[in-house]
User: Which sequence fits this backbone?
């Protein structure tokens, strides 16, 4: 049987604030070496037999961090499951089990946390071998840490006295004890720390979880069945996953089953749950200090100092934790380090961004660091990784000035395509479509100066999610598509629809675009493309309104009074020069048809792209273009062709001429 590592990589790591924060928690940080804790979790499995690619369960916000860190250690085919919301360990592990069953009817899951330290890898592998054999026999195996002290920060596992092939029957799981109880556990000798690591067959887990926590299994099955592939990630269905009880695997199963064994593990394990724990496992100097970064100490003892951003110096202190970051410094005594969580809660309650985010923010393309800000200005340092690019975008309320610090930048600035090197710069006025790209093998760094009345991250229109139609569409699609064979390339309806769009733009009219369900992406493509292409020919932006929300369309169709920006614009600003375009492929067509009828009644010209027969009783007076197919994929191919033609006509049009 294959061993499938399941890495649980959720959690916010607030007990290691300010280094670990919600947007960049401890499992993605190199706290105990050159590699991050996630990377170390995967790498310490090297040498195991029959090892499959890992399944990593993480927060959707961290997906690009996970993918990048896997790539850095040459893990090429991880399965990355994205939780829409944290629901504790039982749903996360069950999700991984059902996902693993898609590729292997039965395998053995090795469930690990992404934020543990295990220094003695040989002993860890020996324990895995024992647990593997237990799992083969249908047991639910957990790893119990041989305690080194009467620690009150861990739950405990009470084991039977008699050994069975290196494992022990579990008699009881107990919660975190007080100091007196913890001491008695150590004295009895058959209590182990609960590590939160497990090993079992997928079928064993699913069968037993179905017995003891059926609601979790039902929700998770639905979440996996309705999951969607998003690039290299699998997005679990949000509604289904949210419906699952939020239970730990201990509560949902391990405490209830009589089929659980524990494998003792004595391998210098730590869950790095506090700054004191990090101090305890760190390499100490002659004075008992653990230092990281630019640190100078004098008469300092038994102290942990982390200073990767500024020089930190100490004189005459003992037993402290000192952690310095660009925007926050944390100082406490070792015995109070656990109370940092209350600081984080206070920051969040007061709306301070330092509680959740670093000054340096990581993105799929690299990172940016907000190095200075004031009234109506902000300065950022941007680092763009080799081969990466920022989205094609535009801002309504701010302009930007870019200075190249190092590397070579390929810049889109309105109609200009620029190649800029070190010391060169460009100014980007507001309402100008722009893009930054690094096409080289070396990192690119720029200084970005923003100025304007509003500098929030939400003042942005992104076009990268829609991808340029001309890149998607090609001659091969025209020549070989089965739909194109049946649909004349330039029908009278398509030509007429193009003229309607161009006349609307030329006369300063507004274009309303609506599409939901399977046609949502097509409507987004069209809106983005019209903006980009029209900008090439005329400075003012075209008036485009877009909705892909079925509730908005339903309200428009039924009573015209839905309190939504799209609806208000449609009702308040419509005229004979405006145009409503509806795009429909299948089940949502009734909403689109009724919305088009509403638009026509309000005086707008209308165009409908569809693949379904329009019932004459609908009395659609506008232009209808039908793809001769009921197959959704074929209909969408036809829509791509038509949208591409429209955009090419906009490109070729001289908007300085009056309407004919």
Assistant:
């Amino acid at each position: 049987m294959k061993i499938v590592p399941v890495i649980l990589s959720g959690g916010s790591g607030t007990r290691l604030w300010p280094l670990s924060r919600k947007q960049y928690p401890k499992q993605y940080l190199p706290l105990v070496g050159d590699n991050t804790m996630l990377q170390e979790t995967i790498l310490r499995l090297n040498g195991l037999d029959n090892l499959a690619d890992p399944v990593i369960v993480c927060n959707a916000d961290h997906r690009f961090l996970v993918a990048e860190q896997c790539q850095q250690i040459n893990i090429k085919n991880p399965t990355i499951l994205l939780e829409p919301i944290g629901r504790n360990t039982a749903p996360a592990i069950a999700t991984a089990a059902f996902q693993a069953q898609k590729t292997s009817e039965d395998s053995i899951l090795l469930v690990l946390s992404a934020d543990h330290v295990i220094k003695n890898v040989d002993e860890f592998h020996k324990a895995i071998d024992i647990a593997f054999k237990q799992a083969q026999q249908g047991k639910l195996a957990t790893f119990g840490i041989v305690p080194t002290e009467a620690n009150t920060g861990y739950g405990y596992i009470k084991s039977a006295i008699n050994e069975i092939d290196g494992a022990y029957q579990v008699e009881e799981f107990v919660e975190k004890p007080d100091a007196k109880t913890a001491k008695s556990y150590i004295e009895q000798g058959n209590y182990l720390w609960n590590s939160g690591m497990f090993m079992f067959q997928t079928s064993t887990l699913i069968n037993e979880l179905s017995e003891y926590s059926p609601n979790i299994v039902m929700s998770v099955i639905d979440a996996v069945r309705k999951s969607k592939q998003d690039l290299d990630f699998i997005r679990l269905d949000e509604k289904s996953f949210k419906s699952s009880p939020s239970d730990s695997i201990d509560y949902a199963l391990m405490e209830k089953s009589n089929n659980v064994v524990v494998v003792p593990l004595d391998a210098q394990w730590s869950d790095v749950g506090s700054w004191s724990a990090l101090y305890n496992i760190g390499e100490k100097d002659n004075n008992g200090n653990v230092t990281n970064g630019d640190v100078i100490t004098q008469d300092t003892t038994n102290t942990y100092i982390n200073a990767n951003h500024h020089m930190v110096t100490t004189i005459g202190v003992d037993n402290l934790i000192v952690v310095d970051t660009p925007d926050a410094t944390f100082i406490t005594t070792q015995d109070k380090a656990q109370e940092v969580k209350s600081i984080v809660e206070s920051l969040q309650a007061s709306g301070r961004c330092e509680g959740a985010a670093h000054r340096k923010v990581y993105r799929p393309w690299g990172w940016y660091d907000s190095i200075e800000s004031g009234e109506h200005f902000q300065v950022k340092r941007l680092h763009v990784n080799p081969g990466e690019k920022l989205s094609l975008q535009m801002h309504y309320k701010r302009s930007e000035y870019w200075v190249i610090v190092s590397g070579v930048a390929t810049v889109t600035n309105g109609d200009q395509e620029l190649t800029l090197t070190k010391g060169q710069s460009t100014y980007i006025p507001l309402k100008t479509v722009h893009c930054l790209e690094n096409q080289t093998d070396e990192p690119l760094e720029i200084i970005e100066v923003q100025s304007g009345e509003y500098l929030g991250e939400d003042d942005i229109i992104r076009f990268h999610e829609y991808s340029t139609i001309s890149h998607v569409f090609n001659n091969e699609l025209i020549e070989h598509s089965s739909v194109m064979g049946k649909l004349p390339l330039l029908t009278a309806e398509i030509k007429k629809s193009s003229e309607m769009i161009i006349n609307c733009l030329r006369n300063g009219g507004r274009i309303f675009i609506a599409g939901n369900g399977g046609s949502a992406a097509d409507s987004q493509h069209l809106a983005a493309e019209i903006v980009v292409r029209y900008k090439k020919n005329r400075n003012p932006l075209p008036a485009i309104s877009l909705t892909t929300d079925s509730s908005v369309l339903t309200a428009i169709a039924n009573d015209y009074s839905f309190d939504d920006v799209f609806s208000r614009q449609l009702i308040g600003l419509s005229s004979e020069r405006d145009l409503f375009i509806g795009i429909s492929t299948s089940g949502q067509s009734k909403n689109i048809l009724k919305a088009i009828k509403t638009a026509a009644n309000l005086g707008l010209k209308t165009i409908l792209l569809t693949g379904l027969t329009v019932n004459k009783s609908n009395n659609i007076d506008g232009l209808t273009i039908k793809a001769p197919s009921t197959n959704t994929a074929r209909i969408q191919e036809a829509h791509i062709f038509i949208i591409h033609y429209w955009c090419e006509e906009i490109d070729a049009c001289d908007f300085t001429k009056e309407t004919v």
User: Anything to note?
Assistant: The chain has four domains: 3-270, 275-349, 367-462, 469-652. The two ends are 74 Å apart (CA to CA).
